Amino acid sequence: MTKKPEPNEPRLLDRVRTEIRLRGMSYRTENSYVDWIRRFIIFQGKRHPVSVQGGRVFDGWTQY
Prior knowledge:
With 64 residues, this protein is an all-alpha fold. Helices cover 44% and strands 0% of the residues. Helix 1 (12-22) runs antiparallel to helix 2 (27-43).
């Protein structure tokens, strides 16, 4: 079971948007990534990606 985020902690998609902007990626890339993540969450039964497969979803993201 996953922990609930703190009330003042940004939501997942807001954190993704912030990270993409910090990396200087384009607005269209941001929208594509957010849309892909949103569809992935829906596909997984609206579970948070960290709870899916023990968080392995994000393993490859740290390389970029």
